[in-house]
Amino acid sequence: MKRLSYSLALAVALLPQLLLPSIHAQNRGEWEDAMYTPISPDSAFATGAENLWNHEVFPTMLLFRESGYMGRTAVVANQTSVVGTTHLVDTLLRAGVNVTKIFCPEHGFRGIAAAGAKVDNSTDPKTGLPIISLYGKNKKPTPKQMEDVDVVLFDLQDVGCRFYTYLSTLHYVMEACAERGIPLIVLDRPNPNGHYVDGPVLDTATCRSFVGMHPVPVVYGMTIGEYAQMINGEGWLQSGEKCNLTVVPMQGYKRDSVGYELPVPPSPNLRTAQAVALYPSLCLFEGTNCGVGRGTD
């Protein structure tokens, strides 16, 4: 039997709020004493991860931990998953969220593995949490890996290009969550190439792989939260299943911000705003004998 849907779970959360006001107050204290101070509604800009502290889903997660309906949280993250200057995993643990495991994409949890390099399972030395690689043979969380998970948080910085593999990781995580009825919370981040749409639409009937899973242009102009909603809305998951999806939006995001400088490089060879801007064109040469400047500044 599938677990409680997230919307039903939110309704169930009202009961402990009424019956256990002291717990609510305690959890709110944990939330506000976390490493990162909640973003002010007057702030010019905040990512979804930073805005999580203002979103209804965050205190609800803490309430569920006390009431027994939810708590075991898996985080899909890498080096870009920061809240201010602190890693999302560290921030969540400090705030009382019961993080039980980390899933990581291509390039690994710390983002140092080269493109296409094997990324093994490991243990985070700082927190002791298991890190499960979603790159290589295990691209989709297995049923066993999801057995002890009640909710998944997804926070990866995309670059707005179809062949960037974080989109495929998103797809497979959504699919794994849909199959087990596990809620997925996507923390939205800016698309540094979000100010335009360009390139041919992929013909997925004849050409579909981990570097291109959906019938979208090379540059698609959406944030990763918007893209997750499109995957759901278009029925692209296996058997047309729908993921129980919540997107925590950004605050003050402007799609036409040309040359937006990402605070953390999303992968080893996209170190600057210029590299990110040129990536949709230069990546097409990777299948040739032409050099594209990898490893250079």
Keywords:
globular; 9 strands; disordered N terminus; 297 residues; alpha/beta; seven-stranded mixed beta sheet; 8 helices
Topology:
Elements: H1 6-19, H2 21-32, H3 48-51, H4 57-67, E1 73-77, E2 82-83, E3 86-87, H5 88-94, E4 99-104, E5 122-123, E6 130-133, E7 151-155, H6 166-180, E8 184-187, H7 224-233, E9 245-248, H8 273-282
Parallel strand pairs: 1-4, 1-7, 4-6, 7-8, 8-9
Antiparallel strand pairs: 2-3, 5-6
Characterise the protein shown here:
The chain has helices at 6-19, 21-32, 48-51, 57-67, 88-94, 166-180, 224-233, 273-282, and strands spanning 73-77, 82-83, 86-87, 99-104, 122-123, 130-133, 151-155, 184-187, 245-248. It is of the alpha/beta class. The chain has a single domain (6-284), classed as Rossmann fold. The radius of gyration is 19 Å and the shape is globular. The termini are far apart. The chain has eight helices and nine strands. The strands form two sheets. The protein has a seven-stranded mixed beta sheet, sandwiched between helices. Strands 2-3 form a two-stranded antiparallel ribbon.
